[in-house]
Amino acid sequence: MVFNTIQGLAEYNPAIRELFECPVQINVDLDLDYQAKRQWDFVSPKNGESLSSFFDVSFLPRVRDASECLRLIETAVDLGSVLHSAADKHEVSTPEVFVALQRTLVLKRSLLLILKNLFILGTSVIQPDVAKDLLRRISEPLRTLTAFDIDFDKIKEVKLKDFLYLDQKRCINDEVMNYFCSKWTRMWPTKRVIALTTFFSAKALFEHGKPREQVCDRLREVTLTYGETAKRRTGFSRFDKVFVPIHEPSGHWFSALIDYEEKKIEIYDSWGPTYEQNSGRNVKDQVHAPLMLVLMWAAELWSSIRGIEDEPTFELGGDKDSGWTYDPHALVDFQDNDFDCGIHVLDHLNRILRGKNLNRKDELTLKYHQRSFHLKRILLAHELYDDAKCPIV
């Protein structure tokens, strides 16, 4: 059963099938690393090759394929569940299961490294001015269509005018943010992450243009409805994390995560000055402290609809130690302009779905991520454009 579950992954992609059909006697680490790099590793531009051709032929297909294979590994096979099931049924002693598990884990590691290298090297080749030209190839024809009142036919949530918010030096809008949050959480079901719509923050977290200071019975019903809607939209019977995209009245984007498994609530704000001004201050004096209090209250409400049998709702705060931790100003990648905040929020969700910890302390890693956001923007534009032609259901 376990072996069939893992081997079933190979049916999704010919490249994965080739890797899994290697004989059992191979050196799994070395052979899979070699095979994975041969399939997806970075290829530098050829002599005389235009950067647009390089992006279309070498960079974009590799990022897409490696990302999709990684998603399949993460979602088609829930490794934790497989291991627990195998242990319960005393099946883990079979060599085939061990080899299949080992191959899955090695391939996942290889893909993560390949994607990291793709972005590091791609960033050095595709500079922001090149990315701007690449985006223009999509946006300019669409901009012309808006004059004729023509819209996307296959996705109703996002209009042509919304797509143009992905242009360079523009802040994305609620419709684009909600589209990706809804799509991605449905595509990563084993992560059990639900994402609220951006309209929750406008309704519940802010009042009269400022962070809300008090909650009321009416807000309780509204908050539960938003949580139930997010859960229903993903089709999950249970969830372990709630991702909250936050759109300030000023237009700035940031995000929050309620993690019931790790027992933590963190707010991720990519605007560096906000972090610097609040780092080291007493928590109650930090600028996002009022939002944290509302999120703690919301986390209590949503615990009642998680779908966990026999798990009572809980209370945060007060004198009793709940075991939870709270960080109103987690250290995340900083934006280096005033328009990429929404791209950072989508990057937050993407990394959460991949199981990464966002609260970062490595300055070198921060700088690497900061330099690659012009690439992330153009990849989002291509993803949305492709979905408009052939939407993900």
Automatic annotation (TrEMBL):
Residues 156-352 form the Ubiquitin-like protease family profile domain. PROSITE patterns: ULP_PROTEASE. The keyword Hydrolase applies. InterPro entries: Papain-like_cys_pep_sf (IPR038765), Peptidase_C48_C (IPR003653). GO terms for biological process: proteolysis. The keyword Hydrolase applies. It holds the Pfam family Peptidase_C48. GO terms for molecular function: cysteine-type peptidase activity; ubiquitin-like protein peptidase activity. Belongs to the peptidase C48 family. This is Cysteine proteinase. It comes from Gymnopus androsaceus JB14.
